Amino acid sequence: MLSSVIGGERLAPGARVHRSTNPSRTAEVVAEVSLAGADDLVRACAVAREAQDAWRDVPAPVRGQVIAAIGRLVEANKGALARVVTREVGKPYAEALGEVQEIADTCAFFLGEGRRLYGQTVPSEMPDKQLFTFRDPVGVVTVITAGNFPVAVPSWYIVPALLCGNTVVWKPAEYAAACAEAFYEVFAHAGVPDGVLNVVHADGPETYRGLERALGEGLVDKVGFTGSTEVGSRIGELCGRHLQSPCLELGGKNPMVVTEDAELPLAVEGALFSGFGTAGQRCTSLGTAIVHESVHDEFVRLLDEATRSAVVGDPSGGVLYGPMIDERFAAGFEKVLGWIEPHHTVLGSSATGRITATAPRAGFDGDPAAGLFYHPVIVDGVRPSDALFTHETFGPIIGVTKYQTLDEAISLANAPGYGLSASIYTTDPATVFAFRRRISAGMVSVNNSTSGAEAHLPFGGNGRSGNGSRQSGVWVLDQFTRWQSMNWDHSGRLQKAQMDVLEITPDLGFRL
Fold it and tell me: How many CB atoms lie within 10 A of CB 230?
């Protein structure tokens, strides 16, 4: 039985329990987690507030050494942590290893930032006066994450937040509680002090009520949220009442434009990975392939062929993707499949919906009846007015539509109103830069898939995908620090800015 950790102490198990099951074998319980309430979240924020002064005063280079220790422990436990991810959320083991590596990469980047939290000395307009800037931690950070990347995405928030001198209250997804437990244990054994990182297992309604109270009581200085656009908008509204700007990483409807001069086999490989990797349950998953009419038929043929031959099934093996993460996502994907309309052409597998004995898939690896396994779906003929075109689908489904001109392709790519990731396949540099300039996405890939982040590049979206905040690299430091300026006048007299300034008079009428 897992429970929340506040100030280094476990909460006693309560009456409300969530069972986290293996989505590949739903009869197998991975963990039971006692769910906390709103009061517990508020208390965790209060404990984090009490711990923040001492953690802030630990020199930043020393905090960097704690981050270094986390990275070393992650690498030492890489296989074990990846196996927990595979077992609890159904991510193929090779992908899970990559996700764990992303924590190590994040630590490798930020351990050095402990020695580079630079401010600046700035020249004054007056003599005997010095100007300075400093980065200060924001204070208490509340982080709420989804479970599709149960350890990598939390590290994007928590590692830089701790490095900058903040304390953290983390609310992980209930269905990824075992992953959260393993993640916390690594951080605790790396030397993160009690109260500096607190974990609260709670459901959505209790989390929102607790966050609302904690903000009202002045216990939270920054909120980080990864999840749906709908929930993110509610959290953004709540934070706005308290004049706070949250870090929101939300959904995506990510386009891939395939031009007439694209290398089609490469484009198909990118579509296969970004559309069906993690069973399409990434915020950066491919939504719609927007294909030039001259190569549309061949692209669809090749994608259908590659999808039908891809191995789906048990995530412990070498599969393209495994199960849906949880029953709620399976139910959501069933709804999405209801958006398929008569004018669509459906390709990619022998059936749609759940893979079963009566709706089998050739080459399936494992027991389809044991888990939440779904057929991959390609839907050709998608129109801009279709729900499949405008809404995030969060499952193994790719829409395909045609275009004639680049202007039309960019208009289609921007139309759903999301702005997370976009991809273009072309061999023409002029097309690349025309696309980059006008696409609304925060991240652009050229001859690469819509998925795939590196730990030192800014990650985040615009529009319905987020509020413009960015994670990863030096850019995330602006989320977890505030700039403070200081002026020091050692002239021994009051010098008034903009008034007591030396003036040098030029002869502006001079002409040669």
Answer: 10
Biggest alpha carbon distance in the chain?
93
Q: Could you tell me the pLDDT band of residue 413, with boundaries at 50, 70 and 90? A: very high
Q: What are the b/e assignments for 264-285, b being 16+ CB within 10 Å?
A: beebbbbbbbbbbbbbbbbbbb
The two tokens of residue 151 are 């350890």
* Structural domain count of the chain: 2
Give the H/E segment covering residue 135: strand 129-137
Domain CATH number, residue 437: 3.40.309.10
223 Cβ partners below 8 Å, 6+ apart? 141, 142, 143, 144, 211, 215, 235, 239, 244, 246, 247
User: Both 13 and 90 in a single domain?
Assistant: yes
Given the residues 174, 206, 212, 249, select the one marked as catalytic.
249
C-alpha 477/C-alpha 373 separation (Å) is 39
In a domain, 491, yes or no: no
Q: How confident is the model at residue 63, as a pLDDT?
A: 98
H or E, element range at 227? none
In terms of domains, do 246 and 259 share one?
A: no
Q: Is the pTM of this model over 0.85?
A: yes
Question: What integer pLDDT is reported at residue 225 of this predicted model?
Answer: 98
Residue 452: per-residue pLDDT: 80
pLDDT of residue 381: 98
395 plus 471 within the same structural domain: no
Tens of pLDDT, residues 169-195:
999 999 999 999 999 999 999 999 999
Q: Name the token pair of 482.
A: 């505030």
Tell me: pLDDT of 200 over 90.
yes
Spatial CA neighbour of 376 closest among 413, 412, 350: 350
Q: Describe the strand order of the beta sheet including 481-489 as a list of residue ranges.
A: 121-123, 129-137, 481-489
Find the domain containing 325 and state its range.
254-456
* 294 and 421 belong to one structural domain: yes
182/299 same-domain check: no
Residue 388 has pLDDT above 90, yes or no: yes
Q: Is residue 510 part of a domain?
A: no
pLDDT bin (cut points 50, 70, 90) of residue 364 is very high
In a shared domain, residues 160 and 284: no
CA dist., res. 227 & res. 395, Å (int): 15
| CATH assignment of the domain containing 119 | 3.40.605.10
Does 166 score more than 90 pLDDT?
A: yes
**Catalytic residue at 28?**
no
Which of the four pLDDT bands, split at 50, 70 and 90, describes residue 454? Answer: confident
In a domain, 492, yes or no: no
Q: Does 23 fall in a domain?
A: yes
Residues 226, 420 contacting (CB under 8 angstroms)? no
Q: Are residues 231 and 142 in the same domain?
A: yes
Strand 17-22 and strand 197-199: the pairing is unpaired
Specify whether 371 is located in the same domain as 399. Answer: yes
